[in-house]
Structure formats: structure tokens, C-alpha cells
Amino acid sequence: MNTKENITQALGWRYAVQVFDPTKKVSEDDVKTILESARLSPSSYGIEAWKFIVVENPEVRVKLKEVGYGQPKITDASHLVVLTYRTDVVENIVRERLERTAKIQNVRIEDLEGLKHSVEGAVTGVNAKGMLEAWVRSQTYIALGIMMETASLMGIDNAPMEGFQNEKVDEVLGLKVKNLKSATMLALGYRGDDPAGKRPKVRREFDEVVEYIK
Q1: Which of 40, 81, 107, 142 is geometrically suited to a Cys-Cys bond with 186, CB 3.0 to 4.6 A?
Q2: How far is C-alpha 31 from the chain's CA centre?
């Protein structure tokens, strides 16, 4: 099977699993690969204003289930990843972007004036429109999508979640002091006896969702 077939087959196979088998665990090596794909995800101007929190503590996961409308997958899935976004973008993100670039590319920060101008301009402009938080939060979904595809290509079931009380999740995880807010969650594991997995996938036809303008 070639790469194209691998991709389409994996994405046709995946669905938002509702029932996970709590006895089956994803290996730490596989989880790290999925998280690494998130780390390598693109972000606007390379700001990487996110953090991926893997919740392993069973007691904490029970608390998250309580503020997640009782969704069993929060506790039953092998792994639970909470995708969060930064709340200190204005204060710190430009400096961090410049320092990171200078270190990795072995250049002086003084030589990155063009990059500084671009990132500062983007942050300032979005902030002036009152859209900074929405802009930063939306970028976590890039990483979410890449993690889901990576997991699916590896034959690992996954289910994204927005059905939870964000402020309560932030409290449980102590995110405020870390300058973070929760955006979404991703459950990873292996499907159990899930009726949803037995139904054919419903998607629009290709020509309904793709338009070529020539």
C-alpha cells in the first residue's frame, strides 16, 4: 500500500470514539510520537503559543470527568491530552520567539529585526481588534488535527472533546498560574464495544466540499 492509500484508509477508519477499552494502553513511545507531531505543528509566525498537558493521574482525570459532563472517555481512554493556549502572549511571546530563533539558528537577536517587526505587528494588530485570545486559541486546533491524523496513521483511536467546563478544567489543572487556558482535549486509546464504530462514516462527497477555480 502506498502513502496516499495509507492516509485515506486511516482517515476513513477513524471516528470520534465514544467508548474506549480501559484495559488497553497505548505505549509511551507511541504517545511520544503523537506529541512530537504536535510539537512540530505550524503556528502563526511560529509563536507556538500552546502547551500540551498529558494527564496521567487517575484522581485528576476523575475530577476532569466531573467537569466534563461525565464523559467516560476522559477516564477510560489510555491517555488524555489537554491542549492549552497561552494568556501572556503580549508580554512574552515576541521575546521568546526571537530568543528561540537566535539560539536554534545560531544568529544574533540583533539580526532578527525583520522577524521582530513581523511578529510584533501581528500580535499588536490582532490585539487591537480584540481578537488576540481567539487567534491564539484557534491555533491549538492545528496541533489537534495533526495529532489526530498521526494517531490514526498509527492505528490508535482518538476523540477530540470540547464538551467540558473550561474554567473548571483550568482550576483542576492549576492553569491560571501557568498563564494557560484550556482549549480542547484529546483522548487516545483503543476502541471498546462502541456502537458508533459499527456505523458507516458519513461524509459529503468530494465534489460537494471541493471547488476548483481555474
Answers
A1: 81
A2: 13
